[in-house]
Amino acid sequence: MWVSARRTVEIRSGGRRLGIGLLISTLLAFAMVAVLTLQLFGWDRWMGWGVAFVAGLVYVGCPLISSLSVWGSSLDYVEGEYLNAVGAQMARRVLGGMWGFSSFLTLLWLFVFTVVATQLPLPLAVLAPVLAVAPVTITGIAFFKGRKLFRDPLTPGGTAAR
């Protein structure tokens, strides 16, 4: 589907900036969850490192897929002055699915991190519930900004010539 050159640049640069920003925030959240888990299970045991790695991977799965989806889709689905409408729709669906699944997992994370917060010193105990909502926040930003970025040019508010 044809889009203007200005819109093409907007999709590529906006997707790259958004994807990289979300990827950096996802990696920071992974590091904070790993530190929180190591504080709880101990830095000196292999079990602590294993649990920290698995908890971090489960924790950042949805935000990682969302950030890579925005970044990769902005580069892959725009070629010249053409937007791959099916690919853009697929990217919107992936972002919506990751946001929905992340919303479901946040309820579990809130319970786990609230229980864990009772066993931690005060600064980390305050950080735990905030970390619980980080994945749904990151995937929510990816969904709403990505939905606007990959909108169908023929819908109202689109930029295709009629």
What does the model show?
The chain has 162 residues and is mainly α. It has helices at 5-41, 46-76, 85-117, 122-132, 134-149; strands at 78-79, 82-83. Strands 1-2 form a two-stranded antiparallel ribbon. Helix 2 runs parallel beside helix 5 (134-149) and helix 3 (85-117) packs antiparallel against helix 5 (134-149). The two termini are 12 Å apart. 32% of the residues are buried. The model has no long low-confidence stretch (mean pLDDT 83).
Give me the secondary-structure topology.
Elements: H1 5-41, H2 46-76, E1 78-79, E2 82-83, H3 85-117, H4 122-132, H5 134-149
Antiparallel strand pairs: 1-2
Helix pairs in contact: 1-2, 1-5, 2-3, 2-5, 3-4, 3-5
Strand order of the largest sheet: 1-2
Question: How would you classify the quaternary structure?
Answer: single chain
Helix share bin = over 70%
The general outline is: elongated
| Contiguous runs where pLDDT drops below 50 for at least 5 residues | none
Distance between the termini: 12 Å
Using brief descriptors, characterize the structure shown.
mainly alpha; 5 helices; single chain; 162 residues
In short:
This protein has helices at residues 5-41, 46-76, 85-117, 122-132, 134-149, and strands at residues 78-79, 82-83. With 162 residues, it is an all-alpha fold. The longest helix is centred in the N-terminal third of the chain and has 37 residues, at 5-41.
